[in-house]
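## Example record

The block below lists the input lines for one assembly entry, exactly as stored, with component labels intact.
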Amino acid sequence: AQSVSQHNHHVILSEAASLELGCNYSYGGTVNLFWYVQYPGQHLQLLLKYFSGDPLVKGIKGFEAEFIKSKFSFNLRKPSVQWSDTAEYFCAVGGNNDMRFGAGTRLTVKP
Amino acid sequence: GAGVSQSPSNKVTEKGKDVELRCDPISGHTALYWYRQSLGQGLEFLIYFQGNSAPDKSGLPSDRFSAERTGGSVSTLTIQRTQQEDSAVYLCASSLGGHTNEKLFFGSGTQLSVL
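Predicted structure tokens for the full assembly:
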């Protein structure tokens, strides 16, 4: 089965700083890639996904992610973070049969 | 239903007792997943049900863990002889067709505390 690595466990930024969260996966077949977000006290919800076409995908709230097949990566980016982006972010990979998640990255944005 | 429903929302139990956690997926969703969320461990895959196919149990951490899905709808995760390390949030998610390009809809989880 596929595996997912998120290298940043906790990221602390000031408002307006740029964000990039790393995600690498291990899987030999065709993958579908996701970023989910969990705001404090809320359910996990989908931020964006990639399964074909343009490797640069745009999601809600100004987030985007780029699929680089040669690097097995799907990093999440946002040019200018806001205090309301404080949350936990999970990268996920859908492989042949199921969906696996990374360990998550906690983002704290200081006002 | 309107969303994925999990019960109970909180469960406190004594070490050695058995617990049952329930998940009611969105009506019509054929795929159902169980994950465990622990501090510092992220989302750990436990088990996956897809339609009438045999479930993928590869994530269950020990034989104390089992899960069923009756009638292709409600699922129950059972943990026997609970241990303190079982303390975590147990999340259930469902998707419409079970294809891995579909988004998952998550429940609010069951917070399990083993004393």
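Chain B has a mean pLDDT of 92. The CA atoms of residues 40 and 64 of chain B lie 23 Å apart.
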